[in-house]
Hints:
7-stranded antiparallel beta sheet; Jelly Rolls; 21 strands; 314 residues; Immunoglobulin-like; 1 helix; mainly beta; elongated
Amino acid sequence: MKETTTTKNLTMLAVIGLGLFGALPTRADVITPYNNDAYTVLLDHFDGSTSATILAYTNTGAPCGNALPLVTPSYSYGSGVSGLNQALTLYPPASDPTARSYLKYPGGELLSRPNGTMECWVYLTNYNFNFHQLNYYGECEGDVGGIDVQPSGQLTGSMWYTIYNPVSFDSGTNRVPLNAWTHVALSWGSTGVHLYINGALVGTNSNTGSFADWSGQDSVFVNYGSGNHIDELRISSIQRTNFNVPYPTASIRVSQVEVCWNSVSNLLYQVQYRSNLTTDQWANFGPPIAGTGHDCVTDAVSAEKRFYRVILFP
């Protein structure tokens, strides 16, 4: 028996084909709580408590300028992201269903640093979420930006890098889904501004500025719609690119493979296979086949990997 040039080509095609369509390895990453590191500015796990002050305002219909009147907030702690214990849910104040409960973090202008990242997990039942640095709700100016989820589900990032100059961009066709835990993040600094959904980069801007200092009067606020949840909020003094987001596990299962080759009429061909390339041990697949000009065989694959070749009988 001899192996033809055609046989070698077919063997390589079979190997490449199964390399692409065989079972893929999976990565069993899990979500675990962040720990403080040298770059952590703020970390809130929401496990039955928060480092923020939970407040609420009532809508007065008055023009911007004065802070909206405070009322008693409404909130609860419940199940969070798998692996992260509890999360925080905000509700409208009982005294005014049109009003809003929100979070205000201590520490002042935490986003006003040369390099940084703001991130959290959200579970949205409605498209209403913002995580910003501002002075107070009801102000006419002073909000220097952050991240928002728009009514379309689009994630947007905005940043006033001076008190007169903003930059704004979005996630394009990528959307934050409803009724699913989703990680959102914005980083800024020397490599530009980057927007992430579930650890994937979905938007960029080349601006290398930072959030403007509003005379030291701003704070970090989080405001989201009724029934929405938040978990594992973190602000860092570095542009992070890796987040505690598990890779999706995936596998591709091949139910059958068709091996075809050009042949010469009346010559005999034998299809063979083996499961690895470390030993030269081939097994016949079916009986020899008389050439008809172009021939094919179909194998119902039962192994995770299989390599094929076609040999020509002398």
